[in-house]
């Protein structure tokens, strides 16, 4: 296994390479999704695009798809046309996925299968630790820290954590712009409407150097549709805005509740002025120290084979 590790690999990658063996069963299961002998030309073109290969080359020689890496093949799990319910159950059986329920939603089952594939193949795991949508859930706090996520909450759903990490780079690219404010809040399922003081016909509506931000909460409400439109949520929105806005502006924040399929914005808290603060230090989120002693990858269930 050590021969597969590059000389400049991080300590995390080296540690994982020592603990996680390779499982050829994962690659065999993923290759079975290709079913090349029964594919039409249109399906072969689709497979080529999903796996990042030239469609023209695949049409001439479909067998070159067998050379794809496990990470390339993993994208097929997301598509029912190539991975149906029966094949999902086969993955669950072969990889001994815990808490597998046949009546679970299709999206959840596909997510479970992809996570199991990553955890049961060392090469795939090493290729996935920097991918926000494939990185094992136990390692997400470290990935968030490494990409300088400014706001983090362990109570968030796994899907929300992955989306915030995925958007971090785009936010840092445009920090200080209205788009950065919108992108950072969009990651938390908070829809925004942003207006700078010079926009519109009435220039006296806002003081000079002020940006008005409507933050409309929607899909991050809890099951009782309550508890999120709170002072704590307003403080969180403030922190996010302070982390990404440019230092020369004041921000007028108005927090509201949005029902996209009903009445639009139906209520709002009184506007609150966010005072100018020092520029953020850039330290971002850091994993809890106690977590470093307790977090670990789930033990592998599939039978290992040597590389």
Automatic annotation (TrEMBL):
Name this polypeptide is given: Tail protein I
Q: What domain of life does the native source organism fall in? A: Bacteria
Q: What InterPro entries does its record include?
A: Tail_protein_I
